[in-house]
């Protein structure tokens, strides 16, 4: 009897345990099923998403945030909300250059990526959003000199876009992302090509611009949510790395993007205008486009507006440059602002005022970017330029070539010496080149290269580059190659990296 009791007891316990385990297993399966049906995030381009994106482009970031919060209430699984919230964060960081804001918002990136990575893998936006988030963070990091982290973002974005292209070869978003990446990778100098190979990055400028052109052509007749961003990215990359800055102006003149509604678009068009010899047009764009009301402010507006007015030799240019230099809390362009304030002072106030700004500029801001490094180096020399040459230089930078040449022609080269003598000749060459008087420009550049005073200077190195570009434009590839190589053989006291990079890109086109 005792044995039977024990046997029954064991059997009862086993049956109870089996029932409990079965219940647990069924509960687990039900939970997995429920999570699979209701927990998988989707990527939906709803009306709220379209409206929020439009407000982001117009820098109405708080309005966009509210719209995205409403989308969460009615469609809590829509992961496009996470993507656009991340975009808003990156825009704030990129514009403000606020290190504390960067530290506060960066952890949100990883939380959002976790949610997106758990989303619907069958959507063309699954990998696209992850990749574009990394490009946006790459741009944000660029403001703080985080080059290694930015390279990691670039590498991961490239991998994701390549994977997405295999899965969805006809998705135009792939051309958008890969176009940006291929241009950036293609602009890396040849002497750093080992780094590209090490990181598994590939692409060239022509390939990248073709892909971006595909996006702009596609979006003319097909809906693409990120059309505005694609237009602006294309123009910015054309300005930085294209062979002709006029292409960037053409892109930003598209009626498909509104400079009246979007301060970002207006700022970029003005930036392109200033650096493609359309300063008066840029001033007009800026004067009508400063952020207002609930639009996120762009502090760099003051710097660009002051720079444009300085290039036109407007007496009130210093007001905007000074306001930027004394109120901006970011890291970049502050030293350049003080250098420009010194130039303005020399033209309108005198040498002592110029020196005061140089002294102040040496201790203000950061020398992280190429422009700020060059400004710091120039101010450290303490050299005060010839006033007439400075005026001619500023007018040339603004695209006022005839006025610049008038000053230069009224200043005999034989009364100058040293660097002033070299700069005088160089500025004549640049003005003739930009006026498309190529024969005169080449002859002047060649004279400059023969001058002993030009050895080791920026002017000689860049003169060789410009001759190469002129001959390339004429279709004389062999001669162009000789001068691109000549450029690479010359040292430069400033901008050497960027000048040599352009010469190497030129070589890749003519070889």
Report, as a whole number of angstroms, the end-to-end distance.
100 Å
* Helical content band: over 70%
Number of strands: 0
- How many separate helices? 26
Low-confidence stretches: 1-14, 20-39
Calculate the mean pLDDT score and round it: 89
Structure class: mainly alpha
Radius of gyration: 29 Å
Give the CA-based shape: globular
For the report, how would you describe the main beta sheet? Answer: none
How do you describe this structure in short?
The chain is mainly α and 511 residues long. It contains 26 helices and no strands. It has helices spanning 2-39, 47-57, 61-74, 80-96, 99-117, 125-142, 147-167, 172-186, 193-199, 205-221, 227-241, 245-252, 263-274, 279-287, 300-311, 317-327, 334-348, 351-363, 370-381, 387-397, 401-409, 418-434, 438-450, 458-473, 477-489, 496-510.
Please give a structural write-up.
- The chain has 511 residues and is an all-alpha fold.
- It is 74% helix and 0% strand.
- The protein has a domain at 40-167.
- It has 26 helices and no strands.
Note the topology.
Layout: H1 2-39, H2 47-57, H3 61-74, H4 80-96, H5 99-117, H6 125-142, H7 147-167, H8 172-186, H9 193-199, H10 205-221, H11 227-241, H12 245-252, H13 263-274, H14 279-287, H15 300-311, H16 317-327, H17 334-348, H18 351-363, H19 370-381, H20 387-397, H21 401-409, H22 418-434, H23 438-450, H24 458-473, H25 477-489, H26 496-510
Helix pairs in contact: 2-3, 2-4, 3-4, 4-5, 4-6, 5-6, 6-7, 7-8, 8-10, 8-11, 10-11, 11-12, 11-13, 12-13, 13-14, 13-15, 14-15, 15-16, 16-17, 17-18, 17-19, 20-21, 20-22, 21-22, 22-23, 22-24, 23-24, 24-25, 24-26, 25-26
